Amino acid sequence: MPLALLALAVGAFGIGTTEFVMMGLLPDVADDLHTSIPSAGHLVSAYALGVVIGAPLLAAVTARMSRRTVLIGLMVLFVVGNTLSAFAPDQHTLLAARFLSGLPHGAFFGVGAVVATGLVAPERRARSVSLMFLGLTIANIAGVPAATLVGQHLGWRAAFLGVGAIGLVAIAALALLIPHDRDHAPATGLRGELAALRSLPVWLALGTTVAGFGALFAAYSYITPMLTDAAGYAAGSVTVLLALFGVGATIGNLVGGRLADYAMRSTLFGGLTSLAVVLALFPVLMRAEWSAALAVVLLGAAAFVTGSPLQLMVMEKAASAPSLASSANQAAFNLANAGGAWIGGLALAAGFGATSPALAGAVLAVLGLAVAATATIVDRRRALPGRERLVAAHVPGRREPARQSG
Question: pTM for the full model?
Answer without folding.
Answer: 0.80
